[in-house]
């Protein structure tokens, strides 16, 4: 036999409490309280599924009760407000603060039942979304890479094989393929799963600060070092250190990193003694390191140290069998995050996604699906929101680069527009431009010397 939903009626008028109890007692478990204070005492002892509360009560008003329910209770009930005509403004304010609906007195039994039915439907949706968010979070943490293609199946098999080893892993693949997700999967699959997972983006930190970020510093090591600070190696002790975009690391730092990998110890800036570390190193790169070696940008001996266990993540365009599963995953994820019922993906929408080459890989697909979920108002994902038009030759206003510009001027204009479009995010801008962050940084430095204003 299904359990009856639990309702707590809160009203200072005993006639209203008796009326509501008599109206609902056959279908619901009903308790009553005369004010907000008494209601909270009852809720602390025994939870409810729904609270039906008057707005104005001398012993504790409905807005205060709503705030206390949300702040104090781990699994708060949904709240429906009751209000007289003169206090509708306060009831509307209550819905803005989290109440799901309100009833205006006097109301009939049909109106009451309709409001309660809708409120419980909203509670069911809220609980479903909460459960979905929890399961999706666990799925991301425990399983990592999604996909049924042969490439993804083999990748998961390799991860299981190498997870418990101490060997350094080099993950290579285009931007957006999921290299960090794979790194986390390696960490979670092995014996270090209970240890820290520390990530550092080698492309995002200036060369002058990178050594301190990796190895830490002692107090007084440099001006402004008012206290000792551990670096990423020290923080990752007993766990995994992800060196993201290792190809952007300056050559001077590559030599110091090589020593740490070989000796399993490092020295803080300003320290006199080395510190031992037990760290599993995973490095990622979206550039071909062998080409970087030939260009003189990367040390060959460091490459051999990092390339103990090489893994390559294929781009999405060569594993399109994964797209349907990824789309389903992202739709459920973003529907849950935005409080929407899970949308259906039509065959038309899916075929449009399958036909695209996805130069930005899984990250681009994720962004497209998130935008479509947010913009869609119906129960089916709107194919019109899956806008995949190529905008690489246009700026944010849709204007093409002038043909009167020189090649150098066109390059500068394109870089500045891309940087402006990404909100000053140099890593993202460099990725979309197809150049390294180091190259972008050098060009921007040159522009600044010429008096050009840099976005961001």
Describe it for me?
This protein has 18 helices and 14 strands. With 456 residues, it is of the alpha/beta class. It folds into 4 domains: 131 residues, Rossmann fold (3-Layer(aba) Sandwich); 169 residues, Rossmann fold; 69 residues, Helicase, Ruva Protein, domain 3, CATH 1.10.8.60; 67 residues. The strands form 4 sheets. It has a 5-stranded parallel β-sheet with strand order 2-1-3-4-5, with helices on both faces. A hairpin with an 8-residue loop joins strand 11 and strand 12. Helix 2 runs parallel beside helix 3 and helix 13 packs across helix 15. It is elongated, with a radius of gyration of 29 Å. About 2% of the residues have low confidence.
Task: Write down how many β-strands occur, each being a DSSP E stretch of 2 or more residues.
Answer: 14
Largest sheet: 5 strands, parallel
- Enumerate the strands of the largest sheet in spatial order, edge to edge or round the barrel: 2-1-3-4-5
- Terminus-to-terminus distance: 62 Å
Task: Give the name of the CATH superfamily of the largest domain.
Answer: P-loop containing nucleotide triphosphate hydrolases
Number of domains: 4
Total helical elements = 18
